[in-house]
Write a structure and sequence with these properties.
By secondary structure, the chain is of the alpha/beta class. 32% of the residues lie in helices and 20% in strands. The strands form four sheets. A nine-stranded mixed β-barrel has the order 15-16-22-23-21-20-19-18-17. Strands 3-2-1-4-5-8-9 form a seven-stranded parallel β-sheet.
């Protein structure tokens, strides 16, 4: 075929267009999950000024809620489905098989929207064509064939093992199969070199561990089987040694609403758990993670493929094809004993981890590591009948998380004190008083922040911790006057100093980095609780909390001075 023929335009002139494109691609969106994978894939051709990309929603997904908002957030303008199916396009790209894809007037390429094809999924109104065999989503005739015709022009598979399963389930689709790797996994792999950068962006200090809990959707998921697990994990771990993220499948948010999900997880959030509301943040999280706790979703598998430790909170093997990679991981991966010592299991999983333990299984993630971008772009341009751009097809490392993780605002605090000026601080979420199996920790006091505390915490606080503002001394006096059971109040006065006070008018100016100053208020409390006088309070301290050891200077300010 000549270059002139390759470059011939199939798009009629548009008098309103600024860029004179030659081809039009239809991006077919089913829900937020599928949209995220399309946004991974479409940049392989969308930057080409010869190509215009048009988006449409099928409206067929039970999880359509939130999809239009997601597209709008990314600057996408969509056309109605009926309008899209009444026009002709040079190429259509989808990341799901839902809806009447046979109505599309274009060669259709379908890419997976997760780690390959693993799950059984009800086919809705589609007539089963395989007797009693359960249809595997994306590999069975129910999803691939319409009235005897294979719908996709190219069925993208991430690994050749899927080709074997496709051959057994739907042999007529084999000629349309393209083993092209996994662009999502390639982005994850490309980002591993930046792991310290992601951890830094999450606000992780040296020695802190990041635990990610991942839940897919449905009745067999982690969130369904163990809805209290996130707060149980967070409540069992010292907050300064661990941070916890919960990453939920977008279908959960779509079906139940953002407000409802956040309400269900409100106690979990008071435990200091970061409930990720960014549908893509899970990717940076597993690159940064020290442990992933999950179920039969794609996220735990991707994480394990990156070499991270794994614990499985639920293993519903009946939901997946027994020949699939995820089924193999469910059958062999380590289980989390929900009734056992959660903290001990977390520590053991991290300490005894062998990154190569599941390498034979996770090798099934992709047959073409690092090559998905090149293979997919080549296929797209072949269908478009355009020469590929001269530059190499590339994947981009993942975006950095938007803000650092923060722990709970209120804590149960244990102090080991040395009169020579050293202290070891261990903090647990105050929410454990309400929900933890141990209730109030022995030999601990309650330090309460002012950011939406529970009333009972205010009534029983030993220490109240304020925010930055004018006249900390007046705030301390006024707050303690209204909280007769509280011993100390403290607030920042600069970005490197706090003022700590009691109801007698004694004040201690604490100098150091702000987070250590906040922790140090509990050291002042413990000094008094052990019967010591503030007059004898050492000026120079070394404070250990989590994996950190930080210096602090404390200066006593006597009443009236």
């Amino acid at each position: 075929m000549s270059t002139a023929a390759l470059e011939s335009s199939s798009e009629p002139p548009d008098p309103w267009s600024t860029v004179a494109t030659q081809r039009v691609v239809l991006a077919v969106v089913h829900n937020v999950t599928a949209a995220t994978r399309l946004l991974d894939t479409l940049p392989l051709l969308a930057a080409d000024p010869r190509i215009r990309v048009v988006f449409t929603k099928t409206g067929s997904s039970a999880f359509d809620e939130g999809t239009a908002e997601f597209l709008a957030k990314h600057g996408v303008t969509e056309i109605p489905w009926d309008e899209a199916t009444s026009q002709e396009f040079d190429l259509a790209v989808s990341a799901s098989y839902g809806g009447d894809l046979h109505r599309i007037n274009a060669p259709l390429v379908v890419v997976p929207h997760g780690m390959g094809y693993n799950k059984y999924l009800e086919t809705g109104n589609r007539k089963p064509e395989t007797g009693n065999r359960k249809p595997v989503f994306g590999l069975s005739p129910e999803w691939l064939v319409h009235k005897g015709r294979v719908v996709p022009s190219a069925l993208v598979l991430s690994h050749s093992e899927q080709l074997d399963r496709l051959r057994a389930a739907c042999p007529e689709a084999v000629p349309y199969a393209l083993v092209a790797g996994d662009v999502c996994y390639d982005r994850l792999s490309a980002s591993v070199a930046l792991r310290p950068t992601y951890r830094r962006a999450f606000g992780m200090s040296a020695g802190q561990k990041l635990v990610v809990l991942s839940s897919t959707w449905g009745s067999d998921s982690l969130l369904s089987a163990a809805p209290q697990l996130p707060r149980m994990i967070a409540g069992s771990l010292p907050i300064d040694e661990f941070r916890v993220i919960v990453a939920l499948h977008p279908n959960i948010w779509s079906h139940h609403s953002r407000w409802q999900v956040l309400e269900w997880l409100s106690s979990c959030r008071r435990h200091g758990v970061h409930v990720s509301q960014d549908v893509d943040e899970w990717r940076a999280a597993i690159v940064a993670a020290d442990l992933v706790i999950g179920d039969h979703g794609s996220v735990p598998f991707y994480s394990t493929a990156l070499g991270n430790p794994l614990l499985l909170a639920t293993t519903p093997g009946h939901t997946v094809d027994p020949q699939s990679p995820i089924a193999h991981l469910l059958a062999t991966g380590p289980r989390l004993d929900l009734s056992g010592d959660l903290a001990a299991q977390v520590r053991t999983a991290i300490a005894e981890h062998d990154p190569g333990r599941y390498a034979e299984i996770t090798a099934l993630t992709t047959s073409e590591p690092g090559r998905a971008a090149a293979l997919l772009r080549r296929a797209f341009y072949r269908i478009l009948r355009l020469p590929e751009p001269p530059e190499q097809a590339e994947v981009v490392a993942l975006p950095l998380p938007g803000r650092p993780l923060t722990g709970p605002d209120s804590h149960q605090v244990r102090i080991v004190l040395d009169r020579a000026g050293s202290a070891v601080v261990t903090r647990f979420p105050a929410e454990g008083i309400r929900t933890g199996p141990q209730a109030a920790l022995r030999e601990a006091h309650l330090a309460v922040g002012v950011n939406e505390p529970l009333r009972r915490w205010l009534e029983t606080a030993d220490v109240i911790l304020g925010e930055e503002g004018a006249d900390a001394d007046d705030w301390i006096a006024g707050t303690l006057a209204l909280m007769p059971g509280c011993v100390l109040a403290a607030a920042p006065v600069t970005d490197r100093a706090w003022l700590v006070g009691d109801r007698t008018g004694h004040r201690v100016r604490v100098e150091g980095d702000s987070s250590t100053c906040r922790v140090f208020v509990s050291v002042v409390y413990e000094w008094l609780a052990q019967g010591n006088a503030l007059d004898d309070f050492p000026e120079v301290w070394s404070v250990s909390w989590g994996a950190q050891e930080r210096p602090v200077r404390a200066r006593l300010c006597l009443p009236g001075r």
